[in-house]
Amino acid sequence: MASARATVELIADKRRGRALAPGEIRQLVGDYLDGQTAEAQMASWLMAVCWRGLTEEELRELTASMAESGGRLDLSGLPGPTVDKHSTGGVGDKVSLVLVPLMAALGCFVPQLSGRTLGTTGGTLDKMESIPGVRCELSSSEIMRVVREVGCVIAAASPELAPADRRLYALRDATATVQSIPLIAGSIVSKKMAEGVQCLLFDVKVGSGALMTKAAGARRLAATLVELASGFQIRAVAMVTAMDQPLGRAVGNALEVREAIDVLSGGGPPDLRDLVLAEARELLRLSGQTADPVVALDGGVARERFNAMVKAQGGAPGAPLPLGVRLATVDAPRRGFLSRLDAGAIGLAAWRLGSGRRSPSEPVDPVAGIMCLAKVGAAVERGQPLLELWGRPGQDPTPALLALKGAVRVRSSPPPPRRLVLEHVAGD
Ligand code: URA
Fold first, then answer.
1. Which residue of 139, 162, 189, 215 is surrounded by the most CB atoms within 10 Å?
2. Segment 330-345 mean pLDDT
3. Residues that are catalytic
4. pLDDT attached to residue 1
């Protein structure tokens, strides 16, 4: 049998754009986890992947070896379909807070292993933890207990699930190698494989507030995710959705929870409610169900599941959320129609107010954030407040206001209507 090639040869091959032989990526990942491949070598290989890409076979092997590097939730005994969604992240994206209990209310089981705030895009775990008492760092047995009792959970992936992705993701973050479609797809799908669900919806955001700023990249990522997940026998579908303005009106952890509760109570901003219902319908279709998500949402059953989930994770449903004070507003410079509400700039401003973190160990400030008082297309009067900045009493809003320069634009004629769901990508 031919002996394994040295890591340096695998790096050189990828640098030249050659595909590695079957088993070589598994070897690379294994050696990295065992400490036989140096951080510098792995970083170098990742950078070569950013430039040269991966073949389908290579991506499949990378994903499988990351998923198999740890344990897997055993969902086999649950008496209903197991489903989840993954958003590639956006500004004001609090869909999971509504969709997860909604799917549980519709008879599905949803073990959502989610992430923390990444850059200027909010993380569902930080939102959940702004609810007093809620804990998201749960062991695998606690996750399974909450899923069995309530039908859903929103928790952090425990260190035993896909540990190779955890290490590789940290390395990518530090070496500017996050932005690679195969690496993003492998990272996401490996974690969902460890979660063990049967059906998966990917919400691939595109626009200034998203990882993918161009439609072509978002489409390619959506297709790669669906194809990869389907190859591992997960029924998968992707939606490419707009992220050029924030989703809903609230940006920031506790503000977003308040808005999610509004939707769970039958109200809330129409774009957020519509996207939740569109995603619920896709997941129902994938899992072969025929229930009506509107009834579960407006009849209070989803809200009741949300409260049960909060309670099972240590929180007190209905306890006051930590809300700060209004620090400043951004006003309409003239009369007309709002034609731009830049998600990227608003995400950055909210981050500067404290809703995100600069290093992984830093806490987020649950009260920090921004309320969008008007959305693109709205008729506005000169001087009308368009954005409210929220924070701690006495906090200086200047850095956030600087980030918002040019973030809003008012034109004399209304902008063309925009679609929120731009595309669907289905599996075979
Ligand atoms: N989210 C992930 O989980 N992985 C990536 O690589 C990027 C976004």
1. 189
2. 98
3. 86, 165, 172, 187, 191
4. 44
How large is the average pLDDT for residues 92-96? 97
**Within-domain flag for 102:** yes
Which one of 169, 180, 205, 211 would you pick to mutate in the ligand 1 pocket, going by the greatest count of ligand atoms within 8 A of its CB? 169
Let me know whether 226 and 115 are in one domain. yes
Q: Is the CB of 187 under 6 A from ligand 1?
A: yes
Regarding whether 134 and 282 lie in a shared domain, the answer is yes
The domain total for the chain is 3
- Tell me, using a 6 A CB cutoff, whether residue 184 lines ligand 1: yes
Q: Supply the mean pLDDT for the chain.
A: 95
Helix 140-150 vs helix 301-312: angle between axes, to the nearest 10 degrees?
150
Whole domain around residue 378: which residue ranges?
325-411
Residue 120: band (very low, low, confident or very high) from pLDDT cuts 50, 70, 90:
confident
- The answer to whether residue 70 is domain-embedded is no
Is 76 within the bounds of a domain? Answer: no
For 128-146, how does the pLDDT look when each residue is reduced to its tens digit (9 = 90+)?
A: 999 999 999 999 899 999 9
Ligand 1 atom showing the smallest separation from residue 184 Cα: 6
Q: Is the Cβ atom of 168 under 6 angstroms away from ligand 1? A: no
Q: What is the mean pLDDT of residues 332-358?
A: 96
Ligand 1 contact via 124 beta carbon (within 6 Å): no
